[in-house]
Each structure stands twice: as C-alpha cells, then as structure tokens.
Amino acid sequence: MELLDVDKLIEEFESMTKDAGNVQRQTLKKILEENGCAEYLQNLGLNGRTDPESFKACVPLVTHNDLQPYIQRIVDGSSSPILTGKPITTISLSSGTTQGKPKFVPFNDELMETTLQIYRTSYAFRTREFPIENGKALQLIYSSKQSKTKGGLIAGTATTNVFRNSQFKNTMKAMQSQCCSPDEVIFGHDFHQSLYCHLLCGLIFREEIQFISSTFSHSIVHAFRTFEQVWEELCADIREGVLTSRITFPSVRSAMAKLLKPNPELADLIHKKCLGLNNWYGLIPELFPNVKYIYGIMTGSMEPYLKKLRHYARDLPLISADYGSSEGWIGANVNPNVPPELATYVVLPDIGYFEFIPLKENVEEAKPVGLSEVKVGEEYEVIITSFAGLYRYRLGDVVKVTGFHNLSPELKFICRRNLMLTINIDKNTEKDLQLAVEAASKLNTEEKLEVLDFSSHVDLSTNPGHYVIFWEISGEVREEVLEECCNCLDRSFVDAGYVSSRKINAIGPLELRVVQRGTFQKILNHYVGLGAALSQFKTPRCVGSTNNEVLQILCNNVVKSYFSTAF
Ligand code: AMP
Asked: Does this UniProt record's set of keywords contain Ligase (predicted)?
C-alpha cells in the first residue's frame, strides 16, 4: 500500500482554497447536474439551471422535519429518484442528541468519498507537523448495529457506514493509521466488550502505537476512565494469555485469541507503571511510549472533557479532528498546532455548497450569504447542500468566522443553535452552560473532586420556572461546597436577560441536582439502545421535556439538590 503524498495533498488544498468562490459554483453545478432528475428538485422548477442565484431563488431553506416525508419514502424502499439522481441504498442514523431519538439521513458513495477526502486533508497537515512512523493506532471506534429498514436499505450510524466501507481500511493504511484492534472488536455487538478489547489490543501493541484517536474525544476519556476500573483484569489477561470470561462473543474471543499470548513481563511492566502513577496523571504516555498525539473532535460539546484528557495525556499534543455531521462534512483542521480550545475548521469548498445565515440580524429576515461573503468575527448558522440529497439544509450549528485560509473561511464551532436554556428573555447556549459549569467546578478542585459529566433542563413546573443543572461528581463533596457551586452556577450565567429576570424573580433560583455515579453511563446506554454508537455519542447538555426518557433517567437518579441563594 502506497503512503499518501502529504505535500501533494497540501498543495491541492492550497490551490483549491485560493479559488474557493469558483470551486463553490462548480460544486453546486455538479450537485445539481447529478441530481437534477430527482423529484425534489424537479418540483422546485430549476429547469436545469445550476447557478447559485437561481438555486437560492427556487430552493427553500429546510430542516430535517421538512425532508422527513421524502426520506421516509426512501427508507420504505421507493427506488425512484426522490432526493438524488442515483437511488440511495444506505441510511445514516444521526446521533439525535437534541431530539432524543436518531434521525435518518441519506448516505451514499459521494458522501463516503468526501469523508475520506477530509480525513486525508487534515492528515496531511497533521503529519507535516507531527510525523508518525509506520505503526498502529489505538482507535477507540465502535460500530452501531447495522439494520435493514422496512424497504431493505442498510441503516447504521454514519461512522458505522464509514468504518464498514472497504475504502476506509485502505485509506487508514495509506495514512499509517491502521487500527490495532481486529474488525471483530470494532464491529462487536456490545460496546463494553469492544472497549475492553480495544484497551487490551492497545497494550499488546503498546510499543507500536503512534497515536490514540476516536471520532469524538468523549470516547477516549470514557476508555481511560474504564481503564482505571479494569486495569488489573487487563494485566491478568496479558499475564495468562487468556481473555477474561467477561468477553462472551465467540467471534471476538477467537479474534483476540490470535493476538493474546502469555506475557508476564508485559503484565508486570504495566502493573508497575499503573501503581507508580499519581491519580492516573500521565497514564497515556506511560502506557504508550511512542504515541505522538491524541486525535478526535475536541470542540463544542467535547470541550468539557479536555481537562481530563490533558490529565491522562500529560504533555502530549491534543489535536481536534474535523468538523462535520452525518449530513455531510464541512471543514478540516489544518492548524494542528493550535490547542483544541482555539481550533478552527477551514471549509472544503468542493465537498458541498455552503451558505451561512447571519445571526446578528433578526433571524427570520436574515438572508443566507455565500462562503465568500461571510465576515470575520460574525456568527452564522451553517446551511449544507450536499451530494447526498440535502439542499439548503439547516444544520442547526452556530459557527464563528475567525479568518480566511486563502479564500475559504475558517470556522470556530460555537454551539448547537437549539440547545438553549430559556424561560423568558434569557438566552443561554450550550457554551454558556459549559462556562458556568467550568467556573463552578473550579470551586471543587480544592476538594480534589471532579465533575464527571453534566446536563441541564428548564423546569417550568415551578412558578416562576428555573434552570436545573445536573452534575455527576466523583466522591463525596461537602454540603457547603456544593451550595457555593450552586450559587456560582447561578451567577455565572451573565446573559443580561437572565440576570435581570433573576433579580426580579421572573426566573426562580437555579437548582443544582447531584446525580448518582453511573447516571451518565445510563444515558449513554439508553442512546446506544436506540441504535446510536459510542463513537458518535454526545452527552445531551440540555434536556427538554420532549426527551422524557433521558429526563427521567436524570431525575430518578438525583441524590441531593441545592437551590441558589445568589440573588
Ligand atoms: P451527528 O449528529 O452525530 O452526525 O453529529 C454532528 C454534530 O456534531 C454536528 O452538527 C455538530 O453539532 C457536532 N460536531 C461535529 N463535528 C464537530 C466539531 N469538530 N466540533 C464541534 N462539534 C462538532
């Protein structure tokens, strides 16, 4: 297998972004030519026109709900060209964090190709800064169950559709990024068992591991938190060369048996290293001496895990992976030197046609602008037109333009647009919540305690309504500290609408509810049960009443609650 030509990839990217405006026009033309015969476009009266002006005039902005009837017909097996020229044969289940249930979105070869393209692009920039040797990667990736829809289409999470595609493996080989675990582990039917085996494979190949990755960095933190629980069992397996009886799937057992040989020296070494660590600080470089960096999406709802990730990674570089969604990719991280808090994503102008709704203006009237018209410093909602049947699709993400790479915008991910804590005139986003939790959890550090995960809810059953923040923390915390954390959370929402409402008690005192250890694991299990995969899991940061099951998991596990006295 030939390795990728990093210089050539970078050169191609540079020349494409220097001509971003034209490339966008050409991309739209290609999308509309390939799919012009689709019923959806036919009904909109484009009549073969492929220029952005006609496109914007004829095609409305849509949400997933608007497309649902079309997608449903595809899912049910209609083979006529509905959204795309070529029939769709595979469906992706998006993580559906916000709505509480996965959404169906079309997946096709073109989407696969753009996925590999963005992987190659960021790999090229990453490798230039942080070269890796020919070795292996500990990729904490998991597939969801792939099922057949009523109409016989294959359905799985987008990552599953990618991992199952034969081109994925070839590209990973060409990127020197081969997963150290066998396929049986990646595609295992139980993610607890797969996780255990990933860790075991990582340890077996510890000297060869060049980097550690996952789709979203939550999976990396989750894996090493699990390591803290199972490390002795892992050492025992290595010592004896026999897999724990906890792994029950025969295919996984036989795949692992091929790798596992009795190795008491390795078991002793790992045992000694683990005992020598202080609160697991620097665990990753201790276990994997040749790792060059940690890689996975670390921005947005993943930011709260950075602290723990740094704790495990010590001084290893953390590099945020690219920006995209089940609906399509958007931008690549071409500045791998930048810490994840500052990571930006350069839009790839040939993987889709992109528009941006300015958020400064009144939302209903704001007109979307093209990729070349965005302004530095402003925030926008992203709109995608893809090669997989989505036209002017509102992704619901808010991004900020931080600059341009040649002529293509660099985006900073801000938040999901609809994740908003609001009761009357207050508006707080996922990011505001994250900042409040960060501020309040600092009060905890003196106690050496940690907020493992968090979520929130607007409780309107009280009069006035109030914000509820759920915390899962490690260990016991003194009552006074939690009372102070609760006040700090309340004070940390600095949005003028919130503060003024709190002052006149139009919003009631914020409530901090501490949940039992393991509650967020139950939420994860709940989503996986619905068909989500650990690889794409994002903790819902704001749980609405419509997401009743998750709300019930949170509410049923509350052990203590505190009301703020900050106002
Ligand atoms: P999914 O629904 O599982 O396809 O996840 C897609 C969503 O994950 C996007 O719409 C974003 O909200 C979020 N996301 C994806 N990539 C990133 C990133 N690099 N930074 C922050 N959030 C991201």
From this structure: yes
